[in-house]
Design a protein that fits this description.
The chain has 494 residues and is of the alpha/beta class. Helices cover 38% and strands 14% of the residues. It has eleven helices and twelve strands. A seven-stranded mixed β-sheet has the order 5-4-3-6-7-8-9. Strands 10-12-11 form a three-stranded antiparallel β-sheet, with helices on one face. It starts with 9 loop residues before the first helix and ends in an 11-residue tail after the last strand. The C terminus is likely disordered.
Length: 494
């Protein structure tokens, strides 16, 4: 099914990806439809932009669409969410744009690419795509960083907080895998090629400190072949943190926007708030802020987008992971049922073809049997046992022996008794050769290759330039009677 999803347009490409079950979730399907691949292909390769094949021109490389489809399905993206995404080896930016289209405006999207010309190509492609996108489409900011993904700074920027989703666009050596899994948040998902396997790695534990293999769940999606991550030149990659300001307020998570709104409202309130009547004072808290609004705005500029997210306990984390696993089990069950239905359909088609093959074989055997019987009847009708034996071209040891018997009878005309005996023996041998069972004889046309009959007991007097070939030709029907390999031994004394 892979490599068979090509189309003449982007919609046709997506239809084929969906047809072959590469794309199954509605969110991923909409992401593919919103981002046309033609903006990201290498130069002068626009005519094959929607072919299900990798495209490359120099450092610019674009994987096949079915690879992106499998990876997007494994990333478990949530539409219009505040998830953070990191694309390692971002290349043309095609994958980053699809993810941005799915996650929405409140998400963060980073890409790291080592080749400067590829970074420029991706920025131009993203600009063209955004220019042709719908005016009401909420597209988040996509940051393309020029640097080496193997040298991402872990002590500054967004790397300190981590990412919810990570995609690796080049083959990772297993020894370098920990550099990327350490960037995962608890519950985060990483999808990428490790060696020759496309793997899905989930951080399943809310552990503190260095992440161990026990904190990760690894699943092999398929076998793939990717180019390896480039280790040189050694360029430091820093993922800059987002700085809050009123202009980017809408791109922050709902928890941050709600909390900052409450702070701003409280900054305009009087410090002394009257208590409601007929209410217990302890049930209310004075939220009036003594700091002016401009101070709060300065403070918010130093906070992270997840600053107002409530801390998640291990119990809440496990409960959330349980819901995710239940959803994955449901999807796996649906996929299994669909696969069983396709298998059942394939078995029915196999049975139909098998039945047709058996009918065809029976008809061929019937035709062969009819043709064989007709050939035998023609051969028997062509042989006139009352004719002189010289009308039959007898070959091999038997023919030479018969001719020798005839010559002896002509030279010795006075030995009438001996001639009669020889003629009777010759007739017996000829009748025995013709009246053999069908298992010992086969009939061929003159055009067929007739193998030579095994010879034994021939004398030196039978060899010569006029020795006939090893076949019996029946002139009336142009048939040849060939005995199955067997040894005929007749001594000269006979």
């Amino acid at each position: 099914m892979a490599w068979r999803s090509s189309g003449s347009t982007n919609d046709e490409l997506v239809d084929n990806l969906k047809r072959f079950s590469i794309v199954s979730s509605p969110a991923v399907e909409r992401g593919f439809r919103n981002v046309d691949r033609k903006y990201f292909v290498p130069k002068d390769q626009e005519p094959i932009a929607h072919a299900d094949q990798p495209l490359k021109d120099g450092n610019v490389h674009l994987s096949a669409p079915h690879i992106y489809g499998s990876a997007l399905e494994a990333l478990e993206l949530q539409e219009n969410s505040a998830l953070s995404f990191l694309n390692i080896g971002s290349g043309t930016g095609y994958m980053s744009c699809i993810v941005a289209s799915i996650l929405g405006q409140q998400s963060t999207n980073y890409g790291v690419e080592i080749h400067k010309d590829v970074v420029q190509h991706s920025l131009n492609a993203i600009s063209e795509w955004k220019a042709d996108a719908d005016a009401d489409a909420e597209i988040p900011c996509i940051d393309m960083i020029h640097g080496n993904a193997l040298n991402i700074s872990m002590q500054e920027g967004e790397a300190l907080i981590g990412f919810d989703r990570i995609y690796v666009g080049a083959a990772v050596d297993p020894s370098d895998l920990t550099k990327f899994t350490s960037l995962l948040k608890p519950g985060g998902v990483l999808v990428g090629p490790v060696g020759d396997e496309l793997q899905k790695i989930v951080r399943i534990r809310n552990s503190v400190g260095e992440i161990s293999s026990d904190d990760l769940s690894i699943q092999v999606i398929s076998g793939v072949r990717f180019a390896s991550l480039v280790s040189t030149p050694i360029l430091k990659a820093v993922l800059p943190s987002r700085v809050w300001s009123p202009s980017v307020h809408q791109s922050y998570p709902s928890s941050f926007r709600r909390s900052s709104k409450e702070l701003m409202l409280c900054s305009h309130s009087a410090y002394n708030q009257p208590l409601p009547k007929e209410s217990k004072p302890k049930s209310y808290v004075n939220l009036a802020a003594t700091l002016p609004r401009f101070v709060w705005m300065e403070i918010l500029s130093y906070t992270h987008r997840n600053w107002f997210e409530p801390p998640q306990s291990n119990e809440d984390f496990l409960r959330h992971r349980l819901k995710e696993e239940e959803e994955n089990c449901r999807k796996a069950h649906d996929a299994r049922m669909e696969a069983e239905a396709r298998c059942h359909m394939a078995e029915r088609e196999r049975d139909v073809y098998r039945l047709l093959a058996r009918r065809l074989q029976a008809r061929m055997q019937l035709l062969i049997q009819q043709n064989g019987e007709s050939a035998i009847e023609n051969a028997n009708a062509a042989v006139d046992f009352d004719d002189d034996l010289m009308n039959v071209n007898v070959t091999g040891n038997l023919g030479v022996m018969l001719r020798g018997f005839e010559s002896d009878s002509d030279d010795d005309s006075d030995s009438s008794d001996e001639e009669a005996m020889e003629t009777e023996d010759t007739n017996q041998i000829q009748n025995q050769a013709i009246d053999e069972d069908d298992d010992n004889y086969a009939f061929f046309s003159d055009e067929d290759d007739v193998p030579a009959m095994e010879e034994s007991g021939s004398s030196s007097s039978e060899s010569g330039p006029n020795k006939p070939s090893s076949q019996i030709s029946l002139s009336p029907k142009a048939l040849v009677v060939r005995p199955q390999p067997r040894t005929v031994s007749i001594s000269e004394e006979t």
